Amino acid sequence: MGGLGNTYWTAPAPGAPGESVSTLDVAHGVADFFAYGLAALAAWSVYQTISARVFGDAPKPAKRRRRR
User: Fold this and answer.
1) In 10 A of CB 23, how many CB atoms?
2) How many domains does the chain have?
3) 25: in domain
4) Is residue 37 part of a domain?
5) What pTM does this model have?
């Protein structure tokens, strides 16, 4: 998985002489997009969990009271 910097900006622009967008290029772009999106989602999820625990927003497990 190439980084955004070296994948998109150093390659010749599509339509330049002798350069065409291959299916592989498109596939790599889509894969990068999903990978970065998934990583962002995971980071956000971890952040939410930690902040919930720190600030006490986590749903507390219901305690069952035993009746005698």
Assistant:
1) 7
2) 1
3) yes
4) yes
5) 0.42
Tokens at 12, concatenated = 């010749």
Q: What is the pLDDT of residues 13-63, one digit of tens each?
A: 555 555 567 788 888 888 999 999 999 999 999 998 888 878 776 566 667
The Cα 59–Cα 65 span in angstroms is 18
DSSP character for 22? -
Residue 6 belongs to some domain of the structure: no
Range of the domain at 38: 21-55
Structure tokens at 26: 């498109």
Backbone φ, ψ for residue 57 (5° rounding): -90, -5
What is the phi-psi region of residue 56: left when phi exceeds 0, alpha when psi lies from -120 to 50, beta otherwise? Answer: left
Let me know if residue 33 belongs to a domain. Answer: yes
What whole-number distance in Å separates Cα of residue 23 and Cα of residue 9?
18
